[in-house]
Amino acid sequence: MKYSKEAKPERAGGGGAGARAVPVALMLLLLCGFSFYLGGIYSTGRTFTFSSTTTSIIPIVSTAKQEGSAIALAIARNGNGDDEVEFSECPADYQDYTPCTDPKRWRRYGNYRLSFMERHCPPPPERAVCLVPPPRGYKPPIRWPKSKDQCWYRNVPYDWINSQKSNQHWLRKDGDRFTFPGGGTMFPNGVGAYVDLMADLIPGMKDGSVRTALDTGCGVASWGGDLLARNILTVSLAPRDNHEAQVQFALERGIPAILGIISTQRLPIPSASMDMAHCSRCLIPWTEFGGLYLMEIQRVLRPGGFWVLSGPPINYENRWHGWNTTVEAQKADFDRLKKMLASMCFRLYNKKGDIAVWQKSLDAGCYDKLTPVTTPAKCDDSVDADAAWYVPMRSCVTAPSPKSRGKALPKWPQRLGVAPERVSVVPGGSGSTMKHDDGKWKAAVKHYKALLPALGSDKVRNVMDMSTVYGGFAASLVKDPVWVMNVVSSYGPNSLGVVYDRGLIGTNHDWCEAFSTYPRTYDLLHADGLFAAESHRCEMKFVLVEMDRILRPTGYAIIRDNPYFLDSVASIAKGMRWTCDRHDTENKENEKEKLLICHKQLWSAKKA
């Protein structure tokens, strides 16, 4: 934003050069100091109050003309001296806009291993600083648990997936809604029967040993949805595509999911985090590229964790006729798969019908046999195994930490309250600090519910904690009908492993960029100290516009921060058509931290 001075200081009359030197030097010093002060204000996103009583509009237009959008941000100074921010509506074709996985930008990137479908965020000049409109006819989602089996058609109006997948019973259009019969390519008898068989093969699914799971190529997340009733929390993963909107369907149903693909970058998940990983005909070429994709699964699985595969080449003896292949080719692929997994310290744990289960070894001796020069190689210490934000996948096997070798985590729900080994990655982290943090959030959530009765009711299902450390906010909600996506900053201590070790789920993220999800996918966003922590890097308006994109109409945001930042947040939120109220925290005497509770309004696009 460029400002020009409306008046110049008059040149003083009379006097020589020596008489003028001191005033000129003093004026320059004052101007430099004032410029530095203004720079500090605008770099943090703080609103500066002008004394002018005139009204002016200053447009900032994006250069992303190829996106087909005329995007403008207007800052109006009104008569009472407060800054008012107004945002234009995005074009109607932005209703499913995902900035960092935008199909309109795919041609800019290579096809190698489908890397164009990974995160590629637009540079600041091309960011869409506008409000994403809901589809025509949008209405508040069906509430949980009914939403697991149905959603409004107008909220996710995609006919292509219905016509292409109806024979697999993924979903069915029924009047004004989609219904989800629970079918799939590999579970024609329904997802319940499929998971029942899986639980017979993996007894740990029944006793709390298996708590966290990863579903690669998740479809509409019926597998993850079924596991919720079995106290297993799944991160369902699928890439952005032009037609299917799989992740959007999952989140509309109230099932955890994120946009992502196993390609060239690590998944934004720390090592040894998942009790189970699953692929049901997910079409990932597991044995290609030297087993690189298998090595990423090996990295994120805990020692003793399970990898479940159904679809080619499992049960090839009876299935190969429908796979457009030969029995010899499928047998060779299955043999190659078994050999690769054995070399990565997996053993074939169980197999029945279309399902095969491998277990990652707890035996330290297997990993000790690997070295940086064996095949496969053992990963060295040059890259942290937990580092996962824009970190390239490595063609090597990740050995378990010496501290965790041979040790199994407590079963769920006991593990929620036990401080894991990884708590030490947090500066000052320990069992006592984690327990203190849990106590803080238990009191905070009680206070939140008094201020926002919707929290804890069926009005709130999908929740995101935008800046967590130990996952204490999510832990305090574990008995409510919600699930929480815990976000750990990619620029701070990587405590995400602690979150997973407690039996919760989450992802790494940098809030200077857009999140890996579709618009309108969360009912509640919780931001604790986010703007104070990130204001030196991220421009406030971009973060708030992103929050508006991912928040459902009629959804809520609880922003807990220094009052210095809340003033600016409230001003920008008003321009996003949110209504906000300011409150004390549970500690009313704490003047350094206040609450802003905001409600996003449901509005209709002005233009079709």
TrEMBL record:
EC numbers on record: 2.1.1.-
Main subcellular localisation: membrane
Pfam families xrefs: Methyltransf_29 (PF03141)
Topological category with respect to the lipid bilayer: Single-pass type II membrane protein
Subcellular location: Endomembrane system; Membrane
CC per GO annotation: cytoplasm; endomembrane system; membrane
UniProt-listed SUPFAM superfamilies: S-adenosyl-L-methionine-dependent methyltransferases
A GO biological process held by the record: methylation
Keywords: Glycoprotein, Membrane, Methyltransferase, Signal-anchor, Transferase, Transmembrane, Transmembrane helix
Alphabetical list of InterPro entries matching this protein: Put_SAM_MeTrfase, SAM-dependent_MTases_sf
A GO MF label: methyltransferase activity
Chain ranges passing through the membrane: 21-42
Protein family (similarity comment): Belongs to the methyltransferase superfamily.
Protein name: Methyltransferase
Natural source organism: Triticum aestivum
